[in-house]
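Note to self: keep these together.
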Amino acid sequence: MKNMTMTCNHPDKERCFQYLKEYGTPEHVIGHCRAVAETACRIGSALNAAGGTFAPAVAQVEFCSYEGDNGHIRHRIDKSRTEIDTGSLRPFDIELTRAAGLLHDMARVEEEHWEAAARFCMQEGLTEEAKIIRIHMQYEFTTDAWHLTEADLVCLGDRLVLEDHYSGIDERMDYIIAKAERQGNMQARAVILRKKEETKVLLRQIEERIGMSLDELMSDMEND
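Structure:
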């Protein structure tokens, strides 16, 4: 499969912050979005230095929905990544990753905030950002570090950030478990712990590829 020319013009950081301000996104949520975007972009850039990804571009894939744990709707790419493999490595689109990361929670104070934010992006012509944002809450990403997409980077960044800072997977998942149990969902622990272990498989592969731990990669990250 030949690489397709990207036709979407992704907004730069400044324009994304304008969108967030215009939408009325609270400052603490903007801080979270900033940290997620920075985490995702650092991982993507490090993997680009290690060769990139075999996965096709977001514009070339479709996501399907299915019923997962406890009846929750989850999303994944509708074909295996090897079936739609490009056959060659490509660099991650860091501009897309940054824009989707910055805008992913812009409507967090609304119900089904992922749908509201995706609709906003579609209205602005940001179709690839909208695809990532729509599925980011319940995305079943791969554990193969050679077949990640920009959607994986954003969703992974979201799992590694607590509020407005990079925390790593353990602190982030412990927070989610505690929050779920405070809300009375005592069944969440087992599901979240299983997802954490699956994520750790991917994290180890990424660290092996880039030659350092993610903690090292994020060590000088600032919340500016």
